Amino acid sequence: MPSAYEYTKEELAELLAGEPRYRVDQVWRGLWTEGQRIDEITTIPRALRARLGEAFAPSLEVVNDVQSDQGATRKWVFRLADGATIETVLMGYDDRVTVCVSSQAGCAMGCTFCATGQAGFTRHLTAGEVLEQVMFAARAAGPRRLSNVVFMGMGEPLANYKVTVDAVKRLHEYRGMSARHLTVSTVGVAPAIERLAQEGLPLTLAVSLHSANNATRDQLVPLNRRYPLERLHEACVNWVATTSRRLSFEWALIDGVNDTDQALDELADYANSLRAHVNLIPLNPTPGYLVRGTSAQRVRSFRDGLEAQGINVTVRNTRGRSIDAACGQLANVTNAKRRSIPVRSA
Ligand code: SAH
Ligand code: SF4
Q: What is the pLDDT of residues 126-165, one digit of tens each?
């Protein structure tokens, strides 16, 4: 059975042919504005609820639900209908509520320092599976309105291109989310960046750079062998020229690998040539990569060094580390043995 979130409004209207038109709006409002399950949409008659309840089934089943940062970060492991598992992370800040969604179960890109990459690829998600993660999180956010969606969970969103673009468009249309509050993070699939630029969506693009030196980047991000830094640069120039949107680079700081003075200068040149923002991420530990993250002191001096070269730079906090919910840690290890606090599901 499909998830109701796979359906466009037109498809839902077809399913409800014969019912008064306002029923479509009521169901739609329940699903997309209220984030309700079919059986909770009490504005429609019980018989219709029962009929829709037989046509649709949620695609996500909670198998683990943990939180950290005094409840401000919450991670779910969901089982999909075919048994594949994915993870979704909700983060509350003073000024915004952000959900980090998965676009694939696993990832085929094989970045060495990333837990998802270490675990390999299972399959692409459908648009409904991506959207249901957002709606599940919106509901869990309770009275606070979910304001931002980042495609930074498991998977490479631009390797699941159509689904990612479809999900972005529907969040904009159906949830009224500003595309500016939607961020797609890519490891650097150059042709897909150029294609995305043509979509006319004012979303934020984050490119996971990690090294501005081909020899080092080849080791960290195997896709660099296919689209080396020069090719990625072309795609980034194209993105900025076509969309007039600021680009941001993500850089997971790894001790002795990409936190040297030379690495800093290479990054400064690359970022300056594109007027890109840099987001430094202290490396989060993963089981398959036994290299340390950069010390807090070096993270600060690296940041200062970039600023001194005119770069706009931020250091990402390490939200969710204790529950393996931080960047690059999503790999479906159940947290039973970890220092996490189980909570009831929403
Ligand atoms: N596949 C996409 C989006 C998912 S990864 C991408 O690579 O951009 C989300 C972010 O987490 C990326 O910037 C990725 O490089 C980063 N990341 C992966 N492993 C990490 C780790 N161990 N520590 C810190 N960041 C990591
Ligand atoms: Fe995939 Fe991104 Fe992890 Fe690389 S960093 S393996 S692209 S999820």
A: 999 999 999 999 999 989 999 999 999 999 999 999 999 9
Question: What's the whole-model pTM score?
Answer: 0.94
Cβ(107) – ligand 2 distance below 6 Å: yes
- In the reported structure, the alpha carbon of residue 124 is separated from the centroid of ligand 2 by a whole-number distance in angstroms of 14
Maximum Cα–Cα distance across the chain: 69
Mean pLDDT of 212-230: 98
Two tokens at 123? 């399959």
Question: Ligand 2: which atom is nearest the Cα of residue 154?
Answer: 8
> Helices 161-175 and 190-197, interaxial angle, to 10°?
30
Hey, CA dihedral for 211, 123, 327, 175, is it positive or negative? Answer: positive
**Ligand with minimal distance to 158 CA:** 1
Atom of ligand 1 nearest to the CA of 156: 1
Nearest to 192 by CA among 179, 209, 205: 205
Query: How confident is the model over 41-86, as pLDDT tens digits?
Result: 999 999 999 999 999 999 999 999 999 998 899 999 999 999 999 9
Which residue type does 60 have?
Answer: L
117 within ligand 2 shell (Cβ under 6 A): yes
CATH annotation of 4-55: 1.10.150
Class of domain 61-338: alpha beta
- Pairwise CA distance, residues 52 & 118, whole Å: 40
Return residue ranges of the chain for CATH 3.20.20.70. Answer: 61-338
Q: Which two tokens stand for residue 16?
A: 């409800």
Residues 155, 87: Cα–Cα separation, whole Å: 10
SS3 149: strand
Looking at the chain, the domain(s) classified CATH 1.10.150 span: 4-55
The reported pLDDT for the residue numbered 332 is 65
Catalytic center residues: 87, 327
- The reply to whether ligand 2 has any atom less than 6 angstroms from the CB of 114 is yes
Mutate to test the pocket of ligand 1, among 250, 257, 290, 321 (most ligand atoms within 8 A of CB): 250
Answer whether 187 contacts ligand 2 (Cβ < 6 A): yes
